[in-house]
Amino acid sequence: MERRTADRLLRAHAQAIGGLARETTVAAALGRVLAVQAQDLAAAGLGLRARVAGLTAEDVRRATDVERTAVRGWFMRGTLQLVPAADVRWLLGLFGPVYLALGARRLRELGLDEALCDRAERLIVRAVDGEGPLTRAELTERLTTLGVEPKGQSAFHLIRRTALSGLICHGPQRSGEATFVLLDDWVPGTGPLPFTGDAACAELARRYRAGYGPADAADLAHWSGLRASVCKKAWADAGETPAQDAEGLARDDVRLLPAYDNYLLGYRRRELSVPAEHERRVWPGGGVIRPTVVVDGWAVGTWSGGRRGGPPVVEPFPGSGEFDEATAAGIARESADIARFSGVYETSHTLSTPNLRPPGCVTGP
């Protein structure tokens, strides 16, 4: 088997989006890939759906809001992620200081000096402890008593700073809006951190290698946001990469990946996932990453919709012609599964054929 094809199949299998690999719970999927991009929580749910057999949106809500096996916070690249609750504290110990230091300049630019930041942190903790869970808007209202502007980014950065310090985290959703709770209440600590310093970096490399490999230290740096020198050392400290064999992995495994999916964010280079001539279809600019149709980890088109009332609208890449029979059947299965996951259709409608746009038809981001 050609090396690039083998690496792609192995990556898709590691990510549980190819080779018929699927997990059975949210916790198992997060344990496999460590983190799911979650600045858009609905997209994060769809990313988990693509990796977990029979998952529903209610299962995701239960994992985050009731069972507390998945926690949303700022980790890799300083962006919002869903991570296993068991890993929250050592990940915060690793990423918190990095992104607190990087965020200090932005706080100064907003006119928030260290004394004000400390007062804001204490106010946020008191408010959440006494009244929580509280939304961002509710915390912003309380921060105005310190002279923080109610509009703009000041309140957001103060809340994020408090979370990166390990004091608060995202709690249950309220009417579709995120709330914040005390981390120690939401995920009680169980003793010393299992990994710190270099050991934490090496554990991150091991987990990344298992859930994203084949990859290298440069990929780890791109995914994590940590310095290249840190990742190079961590990669070496993690030990030898086990030999992997792609022979026997199932083929024609179709998945509809959501916007900002891990598989599209987790590597420095894109040639194993998306044809070079169609990269702009997936990454149109402005930080947008479109929902993507992949077959055995290879992108063949984009899609949109699928959340509220109609089947996904699927667009093959220009010049690729119509999907073959196996791919079209896989897209139909995935479309029905998105409907089942979201609960947006009656049962009689869940097997309807997705809307296939002609190749090259222009769609919005």
Terminal residue distance: 36 Å
> Which word captures the global form?
globular
Quaternary structure annotation: single chain
DSSP E strands, number = 11
Description:
- This protein has helices at 3-14, 26-33, 41-49, 57-65, 88-109, 114-131, 136-143, 154-164, 183-186, 197-212, 217-224, 228-237, 262-265, 279-282, 325-342; strands spanning 36-37, 70-74, 80-84, 134-135, 168-170, 179-182, 254-257, 292-295, 298-304, 313-316, 355-356.
- It is 44% helix and 12% strand.
- The protein has 365 residues and is α+β, with helices and mostly antiparallel strands.
- The chain has 15 helices and 11 strands.
- Residues 345-353 and 360-365 have low confidence and may be disordered.
Index terms:
15 helices, 365 residues, alpha+beta, single chain, 3-stranded antiparallel sheet
Q: Can you describe this structure in just a few lines?
A:
With 365 residues, the protein is an alpha+beta fold. Helix content is 44%, strand content 12%.
Give the arrangement of secondary structure elements:
Blueprint: H1 3-14, H2 26-33, E1 36-37, H3 41-49, H4 57-65, E2 70-74, E3 80-84, H5 88-109, H6 114-131, E4 134-135, H7 136-143, H8 154-164, E5 168-170, E6 179-182, H9 183-186, H10 197-212, H11 217-224, H12 228-237, E7 254-257, H13 262-265, H14 279-282, E8 292-295, E9 298-304, E10 313-316, H15 325-342, E11 355-356
Parallel strand pairs: 10-11
Antiparallel strand pairs: 1-3, 2-3, 4-6, 5-6, 7-8, 8-9, 9-10
Helix pairs in contact: 5-8, 5-10, 6-8, 10-12, 11-12
